[in-house]
Every structure is written in structure tokens, then in C-alpha cells.
Specification:
The protein has about 650 residues and is an alpha/beta fold. It has helices at about 15-25, 40-60, 65-75, 75-85, 90-95, 100-110, 160-175, 185-200, 205-210, 220-225, 230-240, 250-265, 265-280, 285-300, 310-320, 325-330, 335-360, 365-380, 400-420, 465-480, 505-520, 540-560, 575-585, 595-600, 610-615, 620-625, and strands at about 35-40, 120-125, 125-135, 215-220, 245-250, 380-385, 440, 445-450, 590. Strands 2-3-5-4 form a 4-stranded mixed sheet, covered by helices on one side. The longest helix has 24 residues, at about 335-360. The relative contact order is 0.13.
């Protein structure tokens, strides 16, 4: 616990986040390039420093090895300057040679290209015994549009007109640097095209809806459902010419985009593809291109004055592209077998606590409760690291060819997807590498994943006060478990299949509780005129509330097993007070107004202050621990406190 951060003037019941973190909030300074900075970012930077040491040692002592060679290829700026734009010229030449819309669709299948549709192989949500090809716009992230959100293209989405003008100028500069075109009309056409594409994209609420994002169809029906896009050319270029069944997610957006695709002349698509081909490789190109890219996306868009160091960016380049090799080295000496035993014990107690909550939830009927209990019982725990990390033996890494290395690694991953589709019995690898500072839940796999990267202080340490451990990482473990039963995860059964296993009565009771939570978060206003969208953030808010609830139950089980006196004070605080302090300290964060506004508009998580205050004010145990009364600002009458389980 950071006792020096605790306020002497703010009452816990008035602003718990500030009470716990006032000293830190007053003195913390975000590193360059961070508009939002808290414990998660600090853990990331510490992990990055460890990874950097691993990579640099490999580069120095293991010449010819993939980690060292990939890092060297990123750092060899002299070789990058000598190569100029030659590494991406074949792509630019291919774009220039496109004759028809089929050629546009085929080029969009390239992993580094922008596209109106992305693809990936994963379990069929309605039948997890098989894998299917999924067609989706969510997986594209920024590789559909050049600006962050659809709002940036809309006059009604805010005052972004100056930014759009700057974006047009940026497109023109990039096309000029690559000697593609210096005609500003090309940029005008790209922005006009992206404005049309943005207008048909799904909202954040739609993107969260698991059922809405599942449209099973025969491959033969794609042309009928979404005519205008050359599906045969795209799928052939992606390596899936013979696929018979697909899952079309974001279906109506893809259908509308396909119509726009057909209506847009090929030369406009060539400008779109060429600009984004250059931009998507900019960080691996000569300094003039990198600086131009950062000037718009860093300084103008993200309000960053300076880039992170070349070494730090190189570490991230290697981490993204050889994650398992780094992970194998990272866990040695950093995540001991005893750590896995300790975190596994916590997770098992959380499952026990959840099962008890499910068994005692009076609003669940027997049929729904039976499947819910089976689901938590079967929930897999992936903690620390997997035992079958990749060695990337099939991929050639050249120390002077960063773009070639990237393309070969992506081709290798594409080949693995093809194998996975053909062999559905193959287990899916962990999607979070051991060094990742994050956790997740997969509804199809019914599994939580917590790699070693997030299992560090202040989230977790085997030598820490158990109360703080449960308040921090315990609540985050509970958060991910809760996603299996939130407004979206609850649509998947104990086998990971998307089906209605809730009775109407139980579902209605759940929806009433969820609606109350939506209303609470709708009322929060982080900046004047900027309110949290309670529906968009529902899944994460619900998971926070349930996660802390479960973690406290699990801590009480642990305390009973280990004869811990919950009333004994350490540093002046009882065990349950320390539990809540651990939760609030873990989420302490500073952010600029720009970062906060972006977070509220784009993120499914509420800002940190509301993750803390919005949860504790619903928990009776918090009121009891800190003597919160009706005279305090965060007080909610008992009948207005949301209780999910």
C-alpha cells in the first residue's frame, strides 16, 4: 500500500478514489507520450524494460537468433534510409496496376492493407466443436478508416473540421513522399470515401452485441447478401478459396460498405490503398516518412510532443511480432512456479465464491441456475504462461529487412489460420503472450487468461498483504470471470455455445439489475457536457461490480482458511479496508482532458475514477468498512444499490 497517497482531508465516503490516491494524483507525472497514465501503464513500462533487457541481451549475445535479428532490423536506421521506399514499392506498383474492382478486393486481402472487411479463424459461436472463417469489420481496428472514429468524419460528431483539413494535407504529403501523386484532389477523394464508409459503421453498442455480431451463412450466399464486393477475389487472395460456410459479423455495415465499394471508381480506391499502404508501413520507413506520420498522428491527433525512443518502439515491434519467444525468456526468474500456485489458489477461491453467489441468487430459477453453475465449474484458468510457446522456426528473420520480416511473419500467421480451419480439433493458442499486462475472458472457450505480465505488484505479489492482493488482482480476476455472465457473455452456455439458456423470467430479472447500473453510469459527467454512455460501458461496469464483490467473498474464504483476523489493523486499517484500498490504488490514473474525452467516446471501460467510485457505492461492505453515511456524497440508499448476484 502507498500510505503516503492517502488523503488527510477527503472523506472516503465523499470521493473514495481521491481519498485513496490524493497524494499520488498531486505528484504523479505521466511519461512523454502518455495522455493517460496509471498503474497499468506503469506495469507496462516496467515489463517493457524487462523485455528490452531480454531483447538487447539476445541481440548482443545470440547473433543469428530471431529475437536479436528482428530488433536489429528495426534499429538499423542506416539500412532503412538506404532502402528508402523500395521495401513497399512492390505493393505500390501492384496498386498502380489494378485494373478493376476485383483487383482492389484482392489487394485488400493483404494483412498490411486497409480494407472494407477483415477475416479471422475462430470457433463457431453456435457450435464450438468446429472452427469457421469470420468476416468482420471490428478486427480491422484502424485499418478501415484513417481517423479514429466515425464521429471525426461527421459535422454532427463534434468540431473536427480543422482535423479533417489536416488529414487531407497529411494524405497529400504522404502520397507525394512516395511519388504516387501530389494532387490534393486524391486526398479529397480519400476523405470523401472514408466519410461514406464511416457513415455506415456500427455504433459501440452494436459492436458489443454478441448475438448481433453472429450471422452464419453459406459462402454461396455472400454475393446475394452483400453484392458489390468481389468476395471470390478477396477470399482467394486470403487463402480461403474453398470455404463453404462463414460467419458474417457487423453484417449490415459490411453490406453497406460493399455497396459503396461498387459505386466508388477504381482510381479512388487506388489512392485509398496507396496512402494507407504507405501509412501502415511508415514506422519502418525512412525518417522523412516517419516524421510526417508522427506529425499528424502523434502531434496533431494524439497531442504528443515527442515520440518514444527508437529503442522503446523497437521493443514493441519485436513484442508484437515474436511474442512467444519473448514470453519464454520473460517468465524465467520472474514468474516462479510458486507464483502460479498462489494465483491459482486465488482463482479457485473466486470460482468457489461465484458458485455460492449463483447458488444463492434468489432471482435465478433452477433451470438457469443449473447451467450457470456448470459454466463456472467448467471455466478454464489460464494463468502465467502456456507450456507450448511457439518458436517461429518456419519464419526467416533478416537483420536488415524489417518490412520483409513483418510480411513473412504475417504470412506465417495466415498459414496457421488455414491449418486451424482445416483441423478444428487443434487447441487454440493463448491470445495473450506471457509478458502481456492484461487479462481476458473468452466466451467461446469459457476461459480466463491472466499472463505473467499482469501478475506483478501492485496487482499481485505472493509476499503482499492478502487483503491488498484480493482487492487488486483478485477483483480483476473476478472481473474477467464476471464477463462470462455479463449482458453479452451470459448468452453463451457452459460449452461456450451461443444459445438462449436463460429462462425469460431469469433474463428479465437480470435486465432490470443491468438497467439500474446503466442509469447510474449515464449520470456521471467526467467533463462538462461529456457523459459516460452507460449502455456502451455496461459489460465492463458490471464486471467491475461483480469482480469486486467476488474478490471480497474470496478473500473472506481465504481469511477463514488461514485464520486471518479481519478486525486486526495493519497500518491503521482493517483487512476489509485494506481490500478496498487495494482496489482504488490499483486504478489510480491521471489523464489529460483530451485523453479523457477520447476514453469516454471510444472505450468500453469507464474512466478510472468511476471504475472505483461507481463500484464501491453499490457495496454494503464498503459502507460498513469506512462508516459511510447519508451525509457523504457517494452515499446511495440501500434500495438504489445495484446487486447483480
Amino acid at each position: 500500500m502507498d500510505l503516503n497517497a492517502i488523503s488527510r482531508t477527503v472523506a472516503p465516503g465523499d470521493a473514495f478514489f481521491d481519498y485513496v490516491n490524493e497524494g499520488w494524483l498531486r505528484t504523479a507525472v505521466a511519461p512523454a507520450g502518455y495522455g493517460e497514465y496509471g498503474e497499468m501503464q506503469a506495469m507496462f513500462l516496467r515489463t517493457e524494460a524487462a523485455v528490452k533487457g531480454i531483447i538487447q541481451r539476445k541481440a548482443k549475445n545470440d547473433a543469428g537468433q530471431k529475437l536479436g535479428d528482428l530488433y536489429a532490423s528495426f534499429l538499423d536506421t542506416a539500412a532503412i534510409e538506404r532502402a528508402g521506399l523500395t521495401p513497399i514499392q512492390p505493393g505500390l506498383d501492384a496498386i498502380a496496376a489494378i485494373k478493376d474492382h476485383a483487383g482492389v478486393a484482392a489487394f485488400m486481402a493483404r494483412p498490411m492493407s486497409h480494407s472494407i472487411v477483415g477475416s479471422y479463424v475462430f470457433l463457431d459461436a453456435a457450435n464450438t466443436r468446429r472452427s469457421l472463417l469470420h468476416l468482420d469489420q471490428q478486427v480491422l481496428g484502424p485499418r478501415l478508416l484513417g481517423l479514429p472514429t466515425a464521429n471525426h468524419y461527421s459535422a454532427s460528431g463534434g468540431d473536427y473540421s480543422d482535423l479533417r483539413s489536416a488529414y487531407r494535407a497529411h494524405i497529400t504529403r504522404m502520397l507525394g513522399l512516395a511519388k504516387v501523386s501530389d494532387d490534393p484532389r486524391c486526398a479529397d477523394a480519400v476523405v470523401a470515401l472514408e466519410t461514406r464508409l464511416a457513415s455506415v459503421q456500427w455504433t459501440g453498442e452494436q459492436l458489443r452485441d454478441r448475438r448481433l455480431n453472429y450471422h452464419l451463412m453459406r459462402r454461396a450466399d455472400l454475393e446475394t447478401y452483400a453484392p458489390g464486393f468481389d468476395w471470390s477475389a478477396f477470399l482467394l487472395a486470403r487463402g480461403f478459396p474453398a470455404v463453404e460456410t462463414v460467419v458474417l459479423n457487423t453484417d449490415t455495415a459490411i453490406r453497406a460498405s460493399a455497396a459503396i465499394f461498387a459505386e466508388t471508381p477504381v482510381p479512388v480506391w487506388q489512392s485509398y490503398l496507396a496512402f494507407h499502404w504507405i501509412q501502415n508501413h511508415a514506422y519502418l520507413l525512412p525518417a522523412a516518412v516517419q516524421e510526417t506520420s508522427f506529425d499528424f498522428y502523434g502531434r496533431r491527433l494524439a497531442k504528443q510532443e515527442t515520440q518514444r525512443s527508437r529503442e522503446s518502439r523497437g521493443v514493441q515491434f519485436v513484442s508484437r511480432n515474436l511474442p512467444d519467444l519473448i514470453g519464454k525468456a520473460y517468465v524465467v526468474g520472474r514468474f516462479l512456479p510458486a507464483y502460479r500456485v498462489a494465483i491459482m489458489g486465488m482463482a479457485i477461491n473466486l470460482k468457489r465464491a461465484f458458485a455460492k453467489r449463483l447458488a444463492n441468487a434468489e432471482w435465478l430459477d433452477l433451470q438457469t441456475r443449473t447451467t450457470a453453475l456448470a459454466k463456472i465449474d467448467k471455466m478454464a484458468l489460464k494463468l502465467g504462461y502456456p507450456d507450448n510457446l511457439r518458436d517461429y522456426a518456419e519464419t526467416r528473420i533478416v537483420p536488415t529487412d524489417p518490412i520483409g520480416n513483418l510480411h513473412r511473419l504475417q504470412a506465417s500467421q495466415a498459414a496457421r489460420d488455414i491449418v486451424q480451419l482445416a483441423q478444428p480439433e487443434r487447441p487454440y493458442p493463448w491470445h495473450l503472450a506471457p509478458q502481456t499486462v492484461d487479462g481476458s475472458y473468452s466466451p467461446q472457450l469459457n476461459a480466463i487468461c491472466f499472463p505473467a505480465g499482469i501478475l506483478q505488484a501492485p496487482a499481485f505479489s505472493p509476499s503482499s498483504d492478502p487483503a491488498v492482493n484480493f482487492g487488486a488482482i483478485g477483483a480483476v480476476l473476478g472481473h474477467e470471470m464476471a464477463h462470462g455472465f455479463d449482458d453479452q457473455g451470459s448468452h453463451f452456455d457452459d460449452e461456450g455455445n451461443l444459445r438462449d439458456w436463460w429462462t425469460p423470467a431469469s433474463r428479465a430479472a437480470f435486465e432490470r439489475r443491468a438497467a439500474a447500473l446503466v442509469a447510474q453510469y449515464d449520470s456521471y459527467e467526467p467533463l462538462p457536457g461529456l457523459r459516460i454512455n452507460g449502455r456502451q460501458t455496461l459489460g465492463e461496469n458490471l464486471a467491475d461490480l461483480v469482480g469486486v464483490t467476488l474478490a471480497l467473498d474470496a478473500f473472506r474464504l481465504y481469511a477463514a482458511e488461514h485464520s486471518i483476523d479481519l478486525t486486526r489493523r495493519i497500518d491503521g486499517f482493517t483487512a476489509e479496508q485494506r481490500f478496498f484500498l487495494g482496489w482504488a490504488q490499483f486504478w489510480r490514473t491521471i489523464e489529460t482532458d483530451t485523453a479523457l474525452r477520447s476514453h469516454v467516446q471510444q472505450n468500453y471501460h469507464s474512466p478510472a475514477r468511476y471504475r472505483v467510485n461507481g463500484v464501491v457505492r453499490n457495496l454494503d461492505a464498503w459502507y460498513n468498512a469506512f462508516g459511510v453515511t447519508a451525509n457523504h456524497d457517494l452515499y446511495l440508499p440501500p434500495e438504489r444499490r445495484v446487486r447483480i448476484w
